[in-house]
Amino acid sequence: LADLPEEAQAELAAGGQLLTLTSGQTVVLREGAALITRGTVHVTLTYSDVSAARVGAGAVVAARCSVSC
Known about the structure:
elongated, 6 strands
């Protein structure tokens, strides 16, 4: 995200939320992106039970998917 203009970075930071997931918890992303800051998560297609990928800290996950621990 460092490649984005400062204005875009400020806009993202202002609209961002910090969520802490516990094991078994799922978050559905409808738009935007998720930056994984700690641990690992499973990424699935929206409303799917099958994990498409497992990503860890530092990964950016695009919108329209589910993220679960």
